[in-house]
Amino acid sequence: MRVKDDTKFRAICDATISLVNEIGFAAASVAKIAKRAGVSPATIYIYFDNKDDLLVSTYTTIKKEMSEAMLAGIDLQAPVRDIFQQIWRQTFVYVTQHRDKFQFTEQFANSPYVDQVDSTEIDRYFAPVFAVIQRGIDQKIIKNVNFDLLSAFMFFPILTLANSRLCRSFTPTEENIDISFSLAWDAIKL
Amino acid sequence: MRVKDDTKFRAICDATISLVNEIGFAAASVAKIAKRAGVSPATIYIYFDNKDDLLVSTYTTIKKEMSEAMLAGIDLQAPVRDIFQQIWRQTFVYVTQHRDKFQFTEQFANSPYVDQVDSTEIDRYFAPVFAVIQRGIDQKIIKNVNFDLLSAFMFFPILTLANSRLCRSFTPTEENIDISFSLAWDAIKL
Amino acid sequence: MRVKDDTKFRAICDATISLVNEIGFAAASVAKIAKRAGVSPATIYIYFDNKDDLLVSTYTTIKKEMSEAMLAGIDLQAPVRDIFQQIWRQTFVYVTQHRDKFQFTEQFANSPYVDQVDSTEIDRYFAPVFAVIQRGIDQKIIKNVNFDLLSAFMFFPILTLANSRLCRSFTPTEENIDISFSLAWDAIKL
Amino acid sequence: MRVKDDTKFRAICDATISLVNEIGFAAASVAKIAKRAGVSPATIYIYFDNKDDLLVSTYTTIKKEMSEAMLAGIDLQAPVRDIFQQIWRQTFVYVTQHRDKFQFTEQFANSPYVDQVDSTEIDRYFAPVFAVIQRGIDQKIIKNVNFDLLSAFMFFPILTLANSRLCRSFTPTEENIDISFSLAWDAIKL
DNA sequence: GATGAATGAGTGTTCATTCAT
DNA sequence: CATGAATGAACACTCATTCAT
């Protein structure tokens, strides 16, 4: 299938995101998504192979947009700490401004659907970050431990803090963002 | 007349957990759960009001068991750091030994179903932990910041690291667990 | 099956009547009837063979009670017109005082369940009335036409008038009952 | 795209009518109706909101057709008695030629489903008849009594006589129809 | 390209009935 | 006698998907 009308494509994705957030994968039927997007159920099958493809495509589309927002304007030559702080801030901004998309990815990533995603593609989006981590380790600025372990303190706390389902008392003000970054940095720095 | 059977209750919960992990909430139908549990679909409705109740009850049952395992044998008079280290270890042990139950809670917590949970009940299970955090802050051992922020570094990294969907290269050996705890402690300690 | 506890038998019948009137045959399940009667579903099967038997027995029980009320204290030697007037009045009184039972029979008589009723037994209850009609014909007081035709004017209008679903503006006062009887009599008298 | 098919609508209604007559509302499931109509169960939900809507729509459709047949070609300027006699005859003809539809309405009218019908719409169909009754009263041809009371003798006996469940010995020949009308007229005339 | 009608398979749930106690 | 647990079959209804237009 090839995209003909980008407006319709977005409308369908947006309808998917909001509906899945509201009622979950189970109840978000193609018919309901079509109705919310203002198209016929049959039209969805012009843009997507099937329901799974619709969900997976929506997820990867968001992930790509998300990675671009996180890494926008990053100067990879800057000091490691500055790079992370900028990523940290930009991630918070993106997540805050696109709560619905973010919430969708969280639900998706914890469901069996995620197994259908081509993880190498997602990894490619975030490759520059991995390079910076490696530089930090080489320069003995960051602890020399497993990558997953560093990510668990460097990035996942953002997802936790931004997840309104999990954290109800934390508000992402400028100040709170910087405080939370300092905790992350304390965790991983040597 | 026959008597309600606790082994049947467990069989239904266990079937729910494994099936939801394999195919997700959407595809885990009552009929399939019943078949796996070795009972009639109608029997499920003797033990639970409806499908939602089945899922929510399964979740809260696990959460209770989980909190008991985390806090088992904790000496609340011990130094704050020791308490956290013990909780950290016990959580890892529980999560590692009950991957399926843990995975279920992760998927559940990121779905709209979680809104149906009585969160005050869950909070009660974990109340002792909150008390220890407060003591740490009062004794100027732990940073005086928002509770959600501390949790995001103190506990959620465990969930991330133990989540095989997210972290494929991290293995929870004795050593790795202690290393990861040291990152967490660096993050929150003053 | 044999009746052991008449109180329970009545309770089940009464529950059946009220529930069927409220929600119809389709929705009136054995479980709901049992709950309303304050017994276990299994108990119903001690008093009745199955659901159909429950409904049919309830119907014939009412019909018998109804015929007794209609014909109570009738002097079969009295003039034909007087007999009919008394029957007419007594029928109205019964129907008015037992609206629920009456409504049940109306719904039942218009459903396929009625085919399961032994109609000769019902006819036997009303045999004395048929004898009076015959006497009226022989005495050239009543028109010599088909029995069903006479019944259609002599008795069914009562059912119609007493049926609150059909007649909303007619109220069965003493006066209205006598007026309506005069119409019936005008219809059938020679 | 395909277009909604009126023959399908009729096929579903007809299947509903015959099946409900045979086995009642309770047993006439959507699946059975669909099978008899030669469509998929899902198709029924394209033409009707739900099962209740299917039954109610079928009822009102019949009632409309019935009222049109009863009042066809009536000269409202003719003498009151002639008008009623023509209505009486036409009703008998309709009921005799559409026993199944008629039987359905009788069962329906005595069930709780009837409460879902918009009775004002039904009344509108029969409004001309009410006007004639009023004229008869004003001209002192018909007894000045409650409308429901007149109907109970003027129209309901037809339903009774035509109801094969109730009247097994009455056959609606030309002669019998006129005889029965004379009884009705005797009942209501001044 | 886009649609709504159409569908067989499936959904969550309740059914009438039986069984062990 | 009386019960509530237990069940396979059926319920009303919705699903993802296809098809004719």
Strand and helix map with partners:
Four copies of one chain form a homotetramer.
Chain A: H1 6-27, H2 30-37, H3 41-47, H4 51-71, H5 80-97, H6 99-109, H7 119-138, H8 147-154, H9 156-162, H10 174-188
Helix pairs in contact in A: 1-2, 1-4, 1-6, 2-3, 4-5, 4-6, 4-7, 5-10
Chain B binds a DNA duplex (21 and 21 nucleotides) through helix 3.
Verbal overview:
The structure is a homotetramer of 190-residue chains. Chain A is built from ten helices and no strands. Chain A is mainly α. Chain A has two domains: 1-48, Homeodomain-like (Arc Repressor Mutant, subunit A, Orthogonal Bundle), CATH 1.10.10; 59-188, Tetracycline Repressor, domain 2 (Orthogonal Bundle). The radius of gyration of chain A is 18 Å and the shape is elongated. At the C-D interface, helix 1, helix 6, helix 8, helix 9 and helix 10 of C face helix 1, helix 6, helix 9, helix 10 and helix 11 of D. Chain B binds a DNA duplex (21 and 21 nucleotides) through residues 1-5, 8, 29-31, 39-43, 45-46, 50-51.
Report the helical percentage of chain A.
over 70%
Radius of gyration of chain A: 18 Å
What oligomerization state is this entry in?
homotetramer
Instruction: Please report the two chains with the greatest interface, counting residues with C-beta closer than 8 angstroms to the partner's C-beta.
Output: C-D, 43 and 43 residues
